[in-house]
Write a structure and sequence with these properties.
By secondary structure, this protein is an alpha/beta fold. It has six helices and 13 strands. A nine-stranded mixed β-sheet has the order 2-1-3-4-13-12-11-8-9. It has a four-stranded mixed β-sheet with strand order 6-5-7-10, covered by helices on one side.
């Protein structure tokens, strides 16, 4: 049976994510212990709020170092996906640096945050993209800008401009939306991630 470790850094939708994975048959543990993160077989980094406080909490608990040392498949959700990149312009803060690129404000949209239901369409051939197209639930004001275009495997249009909403490179993956709040289509994304090998 698959065990999923949810990283608790004080700012994540842990209860809903836990329930979503348990409905898929996974065993779920929630931890803020760095050693347990290092030993985990599958990691999920959730997140709500701002990049600066989230990274400060990860650093203080030595979770950032544990995440970097892990070789387990890792899924970032919402802010958790943004923290996978090198730097966020939200407070100009250094992030985990597991994926090359930055996190930038959605400046072109007349109204932020980008909140509510929106389409997620495949933009590359990848296990996660096999669950797309989907309609998923978003709540964010910043978007990732990967340095490698191939890292974006799903995209969403915000006021006519496409942003990466699913990213993946090797064992690292992320979704900008909340799959745990996105009904059967979000469930399908989590199911694909659970089934995928860390290539």
């Amino acid at each position: 049976m698959t065990t999923v470790t949810l990283i608790d850094h004080g700012a994540g939708n842990l209860r809903s994510l836990r329930a979503a994975f348990e409905r898929l048959g996974a065993t779920v543990e929630t931890t803020s212990d760095a050693d347990r993160v290092r030993r985990a077989s599958r990691l999920v980094l959730p997140g709500v709020g701002a990049a600066g406080p989230a990274m400060a909490a990860l650093d203080e608990a030595e979770l950032a170092q544990a995440i970097a040392a892990s070789r387990a498949p890792l899924l970032g959700v919402c802010l958790g996906m943004q923290l996978l990149f090198e730097r966020s312009l939200e407070g100009d803060v250094a992030c985990l640096g597991l994926l090359a690129g930055t996190v930038e404000p959605i400046e072109w949209a007349p109204q932020v945050p980008h909140m509510g239901w929106n389409d997620v369409r495949p933009s590359a051939d990848h296990a996660l993209a096999s669950a797309l197209p989907a309609v998923c639930y978003f709540a964010h004001s910043y978007a990732v800008a990967p340095r490698a275009r191939r890292a974006g495997v799903g995209a969403t249009a915000v006021r006519g401009q496409a942003i990466p909403s699913v990213v993946a490179a090797g064992r690292i993956a992320g979704v900008q939306f909340h799959p745990e709040k996105s009904g059967p289509q979000g469930r399908a994304v989590l199911e694909r991630w659970l089934a995928a090998d860390a290539a």
